[in-house]
Amino acid sequence: MSAGLPQASVTSQIFESLLGFLPDWVQITVLALIVLAVLASWVVKIKRKIAYRRAVRTGQPVHAAAQHGQGRGADYLGQYAPQQTQQTQPAQRQGTGADHLGAYAPQRQAEPAQQPSGADFLGAYAPQQRQGGGPSANASA
């Protein structure tokens, strides 16, 4: 049954049948373009590997995502990236949004005696304080 020749895969048979209908110059052009695409992908991969190794060797930070071509927008800022500043005091506090309110910031009280609670605003509806002390005075009423 077998003539000793290796059987071609289905993919190669389809590829051959598609190219078989084309003239020779088109077949050669298509094959050359496929070879060129494979070589270009190898070149790009090698260039990325060399750039990664150079970055590691010089001590530059390398993001794992940027290595695979999926970096963030900040990875491509280049000379427009903000400069890293040295903090002179390690305990220096970062400012918050409330620090930049200016005239709209709430006024601070000079001597905060006690924080008001919800019961301070009940007015006439506040429960009356009884003179007797202890829980038994409230239970008898």
Break the fold down into its secondary structure elements and pairings.
Layout: H1 10-20, H2 24-58, H3 64-67, H4 135-139
Keywords:
single chain; mainly alpha; 4 helices; elongated
Account of the 3D structure:
With 141 residues, the protein is mainly α. It is 39% helix and 0% strand. The protein contains four helices and no strands. The chain has helices at 10-20, 24-58, 64-67, 135-139.
Radius of gyration, in Å, reads 39 Å
What is the CA-CA span between the terminal residues?
Answer: 110 Å
Strand content: under 5%
Residues in helix, %: 25-40%
Number of helices: 4
Task: List the quaternary state of the chains.
Answer: single chain
Order of helices and strands: HHHH
Structural class: mainly alpha
Specify the biggest β-sheet: none
Q: What is the overall pLDDT average?
A: 75
Number of β-strand runs? 0
Which geometry do the CA atoms define? elongated
- Runs in which pLDDT lies below 50 for 5 or more consecutive residues are none
